[in-house]
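User: I'm writing a tutorial on reading structure tokens. Could you give me a worked example: one chain, its sequence, then its tokens, then a sentence or two explaining what the tokens reveal?
Assistant: Sure. Here is the example chain.
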Amino acid sequence: MFSKKHSKLEVVIGAETVIKGEISSKGTVRIDGRLEGDITADCVIIGDSGSIVGDVAAKTFIAGGKLHGNVRSSESVEILPRGEINGDIMTARLSVAEGAMFEGHSMMQKNHNLEYKPVEVLQ
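And here are its predicted structure tokens:
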């Protein structure tokens, strides 16, 4: 589920961890626990045991777990066989594996219309 084409792994939320709040990263964020809040990153990955209740803005989004919120992705969204998305998806490319669940609307647009706006790093 994680290949070299993704940016540097910056944040990992473990399976027994719950975070309430927003996450912003210029790298890859992997969620194996639970996030209650919005997330902005280059790449967001939800592991099989992970869940997000909030919106996701990323270049690339991979759902192996559950998302209850909307996705705005400038490059691609991939829903793996055990992945579930309950919300709207706006992306340039969408891949839904057999067995995946998606309930919402999808809008396919060219990359330039879906800028995810990378975060400003505080000094």
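What the tokens reveal: The chain has no helices and 15 strands. The two ends are 33 Å apart (CA to CA).
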